[in-house]
Amino acid sequence: MEMDTNKTVGKPVSRLEGKLKVTGIAKYAAEYEVDNLLYGYVVNSMITKGKILSIDVSKAMALPGVIEVLTHENRTRLAWFDLQYTDMDAPPGTVFKPLYDENILYNGQPIALVVAESFEMARFAATQVIFKYKEEPFQTSLEHHLDQSRVAKKGFATALKPPPPPPTGDFEKAYQQAEVKVDATYTHGTEHHNPIELFATTTVYQGNGKLTIYDKTQGTINNQLYVANIFGLKYKNVRVLAPFVGGGFGSGLRPQYQLFLCVMAALHLKRNVRVVLDRKQMFSFTHRPPTVQNLRFATDTDGKLTAMNHSSKSETSSFEDYFEPIASWSHRLYPAPHTLFEQELVPLDVYTPMDMRAPGGSTALHAIECTMDELSYKLNIDPLELRLINYTEMDPSAGKPYTSKALKACYLEAADQFGWEKRTPKPRSMERGNKLIGYGMATGIWDAFQFPSRVEAMITADGKMILNNAVTDIGTGTFTVMTQIAADELGLPLEEVDFRYGDSKKPFSMFQGGSAMTSSTGVAIVIAAKELRKKLAKKAREMPHSPFKKVEDAELTFSNGNIILNNDPNISVSFKDIIAFNKGKVIKTTNMGKPHLLKLKKYSLATHSASFVEVEVDKDLGTVTVTRAVTAVAAGKIINPKTAKSQVYGSMVWGISKALHEETIMDENLGKYINANLGEYHLPVHADIRQLEVIFAEENDELINELGVKGVGEIGLVGMPAAISNAIYHATGKRINKLPIHFDELI
Amino acid sequence: MNNFEYKQATNIHDALDLVNQKPDAVFIAGGTNLIDLWKYDLTHPSQLIDINHIPENDEISIQKDGKIRLGAAVKNADTAYHPLIEQKYPLLSRAILAGASAQIRNMASNGGNLLQRTRCYYFYDPDVPCNKRNPGSGCPAKAGYNRIHAILGTSDACIAVFPSDMCIALAALDATVNVSGPNGNRSIPFASFHRLPDNRPDLDNTLEQGEIITSIDLPQDDFSENYSYLKLRDRHSYAFALVSVATAFKLNGNTIELARIALGGVAHKPWRNIEAEEFLKNKEANAENFSAAADMILKGAKGFGHNDFKISLAKKAIIRNGLMALNPSSQLPGAQPSA
């Protein structure tokens, strides 16, 4: 029997579902063909704050094919308690309840669902529902209401998103006495997630309180519990499916209002219903909050940081306290004896913000790494050198070592690849024709989370492996990566492994966020596979004339669908024969993977990165192009360099977007976002993206988990905005601390 | 989207008859702007008249007098890549290719390009006031977020911008718009086709009810030697101009014999200033003279806060594009500033 050496972990396997996606065979939530389907279209509030005085649905109901208009006046009876609406990612506060009562809490709030026999008729009828409002004064501007800031309430979410640590030393005194210091304020606007797949739900009404729901989500079980709790259904009767998800970026971590409205309509009408939001409505719920950050950093004359103050104020809604850690990041990177970290929220009349790719971290590191750049100029020390002067293997904020930290390798490998040594430090000192050239660099750091995950794994009569887990694949490569891990664990080729996912009926997975799925479900697969190998070996020993009767597990290898004796590869038993002996019944196991909290208590966990960027800025006209960028990432073991690289490329593009393009504009007189479409909400297009390079610095982490993985979904974004801002300073001599940077500010 | 009736016109008379019978009917060619407006219920016609099947509107031809005629139904992409246009009117080709995306240019018609509505945020939001959409309701852009709005030719009622790139080149080239209507055919000089908002911002142009654009004539002066189109925007493609400039010269050595400068992204119509073009006649083609001409063009320019930068940006753009026109090969794809 041949020993299998075709391990796939560490190899650039192409996405297994890639062909289904590019040929349009893969179905998304709004694409399932369902009989007798009705279409719902949401009506959104045109005022920002106040009350609905009256609703006239007569014109809408008179249109052909219009079945129902659901509002707070005629909606189904709902759960009573806020807790029943509280999803797994709900921040502290009072969760938003669609169609609950006449109160308008923000502009664009869903206030009715028109249900009709066609989408277009529902959309048109939505324009014919007449609302009379009583408007009240509102507050939507963060910058105008900074004086109303307060600390965030604490709740479930606080565990993963702790408030900043208490002060150390005496910051004010140390800062006053310091010789070298920088005081800078950074302003970030609102961003909306805008995955290309619109939020959509198709609810199949099966009678007897049973529903099958195709939903756009990053968490099938989260939405299953939400629906069951609100509508009083049994958990087992609500099945949420999301096998393909066209991007999420955090917006799918919480159930969005189209799910609620679609299910309500299906139950109310006892019919199959679909609700799809349009692009404008994608701006009517969650978003990355705007922030204002003030940083004061000081160093000694050698460049060693002595004092750090990071103070952040960000937006939340009037009803929930969304908190993402911002002020605490600098001390996870740099040691300083005197620190003061403060973070507060300003409640405004907007919807609750929410995690968006590298929440908090990408906001904070822009400010921190631009402040470091400014210090490097005051010190006359190369920006990279300044990072190395302040380098530590420890996490200074916790006083613990990292399980692994290959950040230094990231700095050095990326700098070398980029050609950092060719940089002349003086601003405006490098040019090419009509263009000023700037080089900038910045550090990235992000969490390395692991959540509990439960995997069912089995070997079937044909010797193949099936795995079940509720996790989604939001385009990250989860399906491919999990298949690789499972295949290697059982010594099977990829095509013999069937990883089934995106289904709330399957064993537990957290929602897909925090760059944590490879560590969470991946580790659960390793544990389940270990158990499965044990069970297979045990069953093999029970077979008549088994060659393994007196053989320990350690003497066996699993390869190509066989169990093989290490000492004599000619002696083997196939999975098929084992299952045949088991009377054709599958051999299966269900196991939980979870972080080793006790062991890991002594350590800090993080991924790191370094980004180096070249920009061209037109001398007369200010137009900016990011001509080159290199990002090196240290994130433990890389299961699949191809899908991992794609994650980092995508993050780098997002970094360019955050620095130069992306912003949702709030008209403060109207209290609403006004550029709610992809024509005017600018994401980078191909012409904006030039040369991008990704390096994975080697990081062997034997402490963090069974796989040695950390996750790569977000880290590639974190350093980019500051690297670009710093490159623009180097090119032009202008520090623009408000993102996105508009080119006209560089003239 | 409301229910509607669909009709197909196979010749101009059909089209005119159909629209005459039903005044709230609208023509559809590419539909790249109309369908968006319709989805948002900013328009809700009861009848759609498809004018994509009128053969005489669907060709690019040389007229007896040597002028080039662009059929109104010819797609923007087919126009930009047509050998006659690439060779004789490269300014037009470049301006078209600086606009929208490849997909949109493949659908959008030449006639429709002239009729596209402003991209003012407030115009597209049916829930807020807008004098262009709902005359007399007010203009939130003036005191709102007006980064993309006009600095020239504004009125109290409206500060919206006409968003086309193609039309900026057509204005510089002194094109003529041929239309048919209930009272027969007429030709409108390009400068008189679009209008300033004054107190009727609901009217974008001077077409009469029931008229249809049949073609656009390009004059014999083709400016194929010295031309440039520069477009400045918040990303390098698929964004509307904050400022764009179409510049064309006839030179004798380095002396300007004829100058054309049209600005986009700054007004309710393509912006030309004949006085500035006259000033450049018989002058050296250099930055100093372009700067003086820019001051004349931008005389009276007025910002509304967020768009104040456009005044100085437009000046710099006029100067740079003048220099680029002296060396058209320096132009980059996407009408970006020269390297």
Radius of gyration of chain B: 20 Å
What proportion of the residues of chain B form beta strands (DSSP E)?
15-25%
CATH class of the largest domain in chain A: Alpha Beta
The CATH topology of the domain at 226-335 in chain B corresponds to Enolase-like, domain 1
CATH superfamily membership of the largest domain in chain A, which one? Aldehyde oxidase/xanthine dehydrogenase, molybdopterin binding domain
Element order of chain B: H for helix, E for strand? EHEHEEEHHHHHHEEHEEEEEHHH
CATH class of the domain at 226-335 in chain B: Alpha Beta
Written description of the protein model:
The complex is a heterodimer of chains A (747) and B (339). Helices cover 24% and strands 25% of the residues of chain A. By secondary structure, chain A is α+β, with helices and mostly antiparallel strands. In chain A, strand 28 and strand 29 form a beta hairpin. Chain A has 17 helices and 31 strands. Chain A has 3 domains: 182 residues, Aldehyde Oxidoreductase, domain 3, CATH 3.90.1170.50; 356 residues, Aldehyde oxidase/xanthine dehydrogenase, molybdopterin binding domain (Aldehyde Oxidoreductase, domain 4); 144 residues, Aldehyde oxidase/xanthine dehydrogenase, molybdopterin binding domain (Aldehyde Oxidoreductase, domain 4, 2-Layer Sandwich). The longest helix of chain A has 26 residues. In chain A, helix 8 packs parallel to helix 17 and helix 15 packs across helix 17. Chain B is of the alpha+beta class. In chain B, helix 2 links the parallel strand 2 and strand 3. Chains A and B meet through helix 3 of A and helix 12 of B.
